[in-house]
Write a structure and sequence with these properties.
Strand order of the largest sheet: 1-4
Radius of gyration: 33 Å
Number of helices: 21
Structural class: alpha+beta
CATH topology of the largest domain: Lysozyme
Strand content: 5-15%
Helix content: 40-55%
Distance between the termini: 81 Å
CATH architecture of the largest domain: Orthogonal Bundle
């Protein structure tokens, strides 16, 4: 892959990485009662003994921003949109400060992965454009995470998405997927600016634009194709160039970048047991928000799966290890429950598992005035009897939850059309719509005949109330008629009239 050659030199102590699945992992086994911690040190970016100039460490090399500047490899884009976008960012130092504060957690990892692949390091700035380095970002197009993968593209790059986790928000997994995707796009177009346009617009769209310009005998560089691009894509690469301009010379724009040490901020912990997010944060002596900043992919309050990994700040790993070794209680307080019937209400489930409907709704993200459909899997507190059970990998990978609006149970009542009745008057009187009346009775026209029998669906309680009213009216009228006419005791006499017609069942 073509890019500028780079050699980054860091001190051995700063480059000490704990090796694992992604090259900076500290492996840990949460299995009880023993905890086996395996550590393997390696030196990344070793000193090039053949180049004595590279053995002199500058102060700039100690900072990740300097490392990024040194690895710039994409030709600068020149167009008016770059000027306006640079002015936009430079005029918002508070916005840049918030974004760079968030970026400081992830930049070392992203730069390291870019260098491993020999890719231009200004690509580490792309999350500024995509998400302002917010791994919890979620767009109206359903793109998620720091690198803003839509669901389908995420699946193309093995980013798992289920009820319990969304790897599009996983800092390590999404970075790996994004860089792999960018490499693929560069391989297709041989131009980083077009690869970036394709990351935003889609490779098919960029290829069609290239084909259009080639057919017309026009150039196929970014500036020449931009007229065919949507406004978002037209501004996308200029935005990256604008951020690159500011990072390259922040003093020129009055921007102060937070110092980001040229060493790992986080390491990866392997686990074999379910563990509550709140407990994991507690053992690491972090706030829940600090823990979630490194582990935003978990959708529920419990981290499931035997092979799941979590990230912790390097400075908190020893604390986590010591506190975990002393922890003598269950690691998870949640288990899975499958709803087997549409009549299994949230209130019933909450009572069964000793909690409240509000907690069931909050933990499982169930909106108000919605209920669970049969077949849904939800998290519930573990009972004492099931304290050892957890959420299996099979459950986590295949669990689904579907909800539908709360609708009161209904029952049918029937009435006969009176002389002055119309569909509109009947609908108004019974608080339903004409369309509903027609649907319930298979009517194609709005006309009804006197004496015609119509069905109406009403809420169950209302129907019962109407039934009791009808029964009471009939009983009273029967009694009066029997007394007036001297009817024998025990003989049923049904009085005619409007009320009887209305409630004829």
């Amino acid at each position: 892959m073509h890019c500028l050659a780079r050699k980054t030199v860091v001190p051995a102590v700063a480059a000490l990485l704990i090796l694992g699945a992604h090259g900076n992992t500290l492996a840990n086994d949460l299995s009880l009662p023993s905890y086996n911690w395996a550590q393997q040190a390696a030196i990344d970016n070793a000193l090039d003994q053949n180049d004595p100039t590279e053995q002199v460490l500058s102060a700039q090399a100690m900072d990740v921003w300097g490392r990024i500047r040194k690895g710039f490899g994409i030709p600068d884009l020149q167009n008016p949109l770059v000027v306006s976008q640079t002015a936009w960012y430079a005029a918002r130092p508070d916005y840049l400060q918030r974004s760079t504060d968030r970026a400081s957690l992830y930049l070392f990892h992203v730069v390291q992965e870019l260098e491993k692949r020999d890719m231009p390091t200004e690509l580490a700035l792309l999350p500024f454009i995509e998400s302002a380095f917010n791994p919890q970002a979620y767009s109206s197009a359903k793109a998620a995470g720091m690198w803003q993968f839509i669901p389908s593209t995420g699946l193309d790059f093995n980013l798992k998405q289920n009820m319990f986790r969304d790897d599009r928000r996983d800092v390590v997994a999404s970075t790996d997927a994004a860089l792999t995707y960018l490499q693929k796009l560069y391989g297709m177009f041989g131009d980083w600016q077009l690869a970036l346009a394709a990351y935003n617009w889609g490779e098919g769209s960029v290829q069609r634009a290239i084909n259009h310009n080639r057919a017309a005998g026009k150039p196929t560089d970014f500036n020449s194709l931009s007229a065919q691009m949507p406004l978002e894509t037209r501004n996308y690469v200029p935005k990256l160039q604008a951020v690159k301009n500011i990072i390259a010379n922040p003093e020129q724009y009055g921007i102060t970048l937070p110092k980001v040490d040229n060493q790992p901020y986080f390491v990866t912990i392997g686990k074999t047991h379910d563990i509550d997010i709140k407990l994991a944060a507690q053992l690491a002596e972090l706030s829940v928000d600090e823990f979630k900043a490194l582990n935003p992919q978990f959708n529920r309050p419990v981290i499931t799966g035997k092979n799941t990994q979590i990230l912790l700040p390097e400075t908190h790993v020893a604390k986590f290890k010591a506190n975990l070794a002393k922890w003598g209680h269950a690691l998870s307080s949640w288990t899975a429950h499958k709803v087997t019937s549409a009549r299994e209400k949230i209130e019933t489930i909450a009572a069964r598992f000793g909690t409240t409907p509000a907690i069931i709704r909050e933990v499982n993200h169930i909106p108000p005035r919605m209920h669970l459909k049969a077949g849904s899997t939800i998290l519930v507190p573990k009972s004492e009897e099931a304290s050892a059970s957890g959420v299996t990998t099979d459950i986590a990978d295949n669990a689904t939850m579907t909800v539908e609006p709360d609708a009161p149970l209904t029952r049918s009542i029937y009435l006969r059309v009176g002389k002055r009745d119309s569909l509109a008057s009947i609908a108004h009187r019974n608080r339903v719509s004409v369309a509903q009346l027609k649907a319930w009775n298979g009517l194609r026209q709005d006309r009804v005949a006197v004496g015609q029998r119509l069905q109406i669906q009403v809420p169950y309680r209302t129907a019962m109330a109407k039934g009791r009213t009808k029964h009471t009216v009939r009983k009273v009228r029967q009694t009066k008629v029997a007394k007036v006419r001297g009817a024998p005791r025990g003989k049923t006499v049904i009085a005619a009239g409007k009320s009887a017609k209305k409630h004829d069942i």
